[in-house]
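I am writing to request your help with a piece of structural work I have in hand. A protein sequence and the structure tokens that stand for its backbone fold form the material at issue. Please examine both parts with care and let me know of anything in them that strikes you as inconsistent. The record follows directly beneath this note.
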Amino acid sequence: MGGGPIQLPPPPPLRPRTVGGILEAAFGLYRRHWATLLEVVAILVVPLTLLQYFVADEVFPRNVEVRNGTIVVSEGLGRAAGSAFVLGIVTLLVTMILTGAVAWAVAGALVGREPSVAECYRFGYARLWSILLVGILSVLAIAAGFILLVIPGFIVLTHLVCTIPVVVVERRRGGAALSRSWELVRGFGWPVFGALIVTALLTGIVNAIFTAPAGNGWFGQGVAAAIGSVITTPFTALVVGLLYFDLRVRKEQLDVATLERELQGSAP
């Protein structure tokens, strides 16, 4: 699916944006590009979510049971653990491809164009290992922060929020991408953290609405969870992309024309 260029409003002014401003812009871009964004996410999220729920329902309940208040491990637990490991690796790789694809779609939306679904996934596949590396490094850094104390964990999470947009737009890798994100967020941690918290609350409510009446069957639960993820994932990515864009505007006077040139240089 594709479309011609769409005229967007001018870049945000050189001032700190409110949480409301970020969310309003994200809703506006979502309404404008919803068809492509939902399609990009649904292609991988729906089958992956159903597979996760199937494995959870068909494998683990048969190997781990609670009898008279005692956990009983039956035969075949090794096979269940192996299935979980393979599924975890597949989930990680698919999630990283999806992350790159959605980030590319969002970056395109920010400069007024709607890339095709095929283009988004070409980018996600081309940048798989770069995104995987920064994803692992980010998780390790955030986990270390939470292990030390809860507050440092939130500080690290907030300052690394722009890591994926940095990989997508600026083609930085590994520690360079993490350092770049940290530098961009420095001095604006509270507004960025506020936007992330509100976004998490909104997406959590939407996911709860879909999953609450899903019933007990794995298929119904999986479908409900997949629908919730398909709807909320693009919005979260839009908020993160807008945060990145806004920080560069305020710190570096970035404009849409410059961002467009950077995206052309980063295209697969």
